[in-house]
Every structure is written in C-alpha cells, then in structure tokens.
Amino acid sequence: MSHLTIVLAFTGLGMLAGLIVVLTMLPSRYVKHSPASKESVSVQVLVLGDIGRSPRMQYHALSVARHGGRVDLIGYLESPPHPDILASPRIKIYPLASPPGVLKSGSIPFIISGPSKVLWQIWTLIYVLGYQTPPARWLLVQNPPSIPTLAIALIISVLRNTHLMIDWHNYGWTILAGTKGRDHPFVGLSKAYECALGQAAPTANITVTHAMKRQLEREPYNIKAPILTLHDRPATIFQPLKSLPDRRDFLEKLPQTKDFASNIVAGQTKLIVSSTSWTPDEDFSLLLDALVTYAKEESVYPIIAIITGRGPQKTFYEERIKDLQSEGKLPNIRILTAWLTIEDYAKLLSYADLGICLHMSSSGVDLPMKVVDMFGSGLPVAAYSGYESFDELVKEGVNGCGFEMADELAVILKRLFSEEGSAELRTLRKGAEKESELRWDEEWDRVLGRVLGVID
What we know:
7-stranded parallel β-sheet, Rossmann fold, 2 domains, alpha/beta
C-alpha cells in the first residue's frame, strides 16, 4: 500500500471517527417538527458542485417555491443559475466558498492538496449549513459527491432536527473507481463510507431510476429508509420546435451556425448537438471516430456538430479536432465548441436534427440529464447504451437509437442522414416530441409534493 493510500485511508477513517464522536454527544431523542402549512415549509437544497450546472437540484428548488415553500439553495456559484431561480423571491442562494486556487492547480502534491481540499469543504459546509442558513424542515442533498457531503449533512440534520433526504444521482465510489480502478484501497474505503452513511443518514431517498432503487435496497447498500424513484423530466424552458422562421433567425444569429444557417434550414446540412462535461465518463473519441468514418462515405450530408459544456478534457479534445481537420479526415464536417446560456442551449436543441449523448454510467444505473433535455426539446437522440438503466429513458426505434462502438454510431448517422432514412428520423422526432409531454412539474408533484408537505 502506497504512502498516499495510507494518508487517504487515515483521513477517511478520521472523518468517520470524528462523526461518531459528534453523534454520541448529541441527544438521543429525535424531536419531530410540528405540522406546518405549505407557506412555512422550508427546504435546504445542497449540491457540492456548481449550482448552474446542477439542473435537477435547481428544479427541486423551483418546485418547492412554486408551491409556496421557502428554499435555501447551497452550492458553488461558478456559472449562472436558471433565470427562474434568480427571479424567485422564495429562493435564496447561499454560495459555498471555492477552495483556494493552489489546492486545484496541481502545483502541490495530491497527498497534501487532497486532504486539504476535503478539510476546506468540511469547514465551508458546516459554516453555511450550521451558521449562515436558518433551520429548515428538510435538507435535500445531492449524491455524489458523497465525501464529505453525506457526513456533514447527517450531523447538521441531527443537530437541527431536520429531515434528511438524499437524491441519488449516481455513486461516488464508482466514479472514483473510473480513475483509480475498482481494486484501489481508497475506492473500497469510499464505498464503505457511502454505504454506511446511506444506511444511517436519510429520512427518505430518491433515485433517478428504478434500477438504482432496486440496487440500493440490496447488499451492500441495504438501505431501509423509504426510496422513491423520481425520473428526470425537462423543465418548461425546453420546448419542441414551433416556428421555422424562429429557427432561421436563431441560427443566423448564433456565432457557431450563422455561416451555415441557410443550408441547415434547407436540409442540405445536418446539425447535431452534444452536451458534455468533458470528463472521462464520456468518451468523446466515440463521436470523433464515428464522424471520421461517416466522412469517408460518398454522397453523405455535410454535418455541423456543436459541442457545448466545460470540463477538464476540453482542451485535449479541441487539439485532437484541429489535428483531424488539418489532416483532412473530416471533409464536409465542422466541429465547433460553445458555452451557451440556458435559453440559447434550449433553442439550439429544438432547432437541431439529432442529439448525441456519450454518457457512460459508472454505476450502470444512472441516466444522463442531457437526454432528458433533448427529449424536452423534441430532439431525437443517438446515445451510448451500454448500461442497465438505458431503456428507462431511450426507446430504440421510438425516440432514439443506441450504440456502444464508434462504427455503430457512424452507421446510425449514415442511415438517418440519407434520403431513405428521412422517414425514420421523422418517426424518432415524433417519439421525442411525445416524450416531451412528460414534464418535471407533474413528475415532481406526483412523487415528492406530499412527502415534503407542500401539496395537501
């Protein structure tokens, strides 16, 4: 076992030991909240990440506020939140202080920066949850990240007699395993921590898929608290195409498409869109290799591919795209990157011909929010399909197509972007538009409204 592993292991064990000491000092009796009206229901929504890039947690906040509840939204302010969040008088944002740049720059060894970053997060979470924000009836926390979020959320919920609810998007330990390997000792510690806190912490849980719910009910998670499945649904800002003139006007104004707008509107050039966080769990090489293969075919439509998002691997792939273009491997194909406002992103999806999703589930039981947004915009998708929960969202031949290899994606592009495939593409668009009728507000009201007490 390396020195780094030993340090990290003791850091994790120290956190757990400290948590046990704190909990043993607390009153053993849990004081329940008295019944409250909708107007007095208060919910803290916590994400140890960028609020602006956490759509599901923002939608939770908006749903509570829409029914008259008060919301404290806690997270990093690195990109603009949803405009309705900023406009709501019932939602107050409490920003978390970002770790010092030196801890994120890579200029100091991870053996120092890693534990130091966790200690910084522990302090900022305790300060905001315990001192800045008023007590709340509910604390709704996103998982992952689980370290140190779940431990601090548990402490705060007990100290303040707050009901704790975990929104399971995925598992922190499986994401860590993607970079460290499943046999790494720290991955095992992370898994044990997540399982233990999952069993001890919540009043209730919500998951993004039925498959995840089934998994949490079994070993090693063995969660006994109630588990509800709340599928992601699109917000109202994502709407199917309604006006062809609006499509032309938008494409002519957007810098990435203004030079190609006429050909896109005429159907002579195809517009595809992919949203990515530029992280290892989305292998962008699949799309690049598929486009190279597609470009080798004769008599295929030119493609404009717009890739939105920010993340650590963006520069790497931008350089690779430049190399492929300079080598002449992408004739009649333009790949452009963009960072758009939520309004422009929603319009771009509704005006595109096909959405591409490269999300690879580390757990096998989560689902990509980007496909939900695409369906909300009436946009059919081609999505990576190599995980258990895939068919809870994408229905093959109805609203999209699945692939696992670049060659399979190339075949899909060639088939759909052909004269013979135009009818199939129209069928998939109709299926996506049908899926767009299932909205977040209705799903949230049905699953969570009464649980949180904002609906009678």
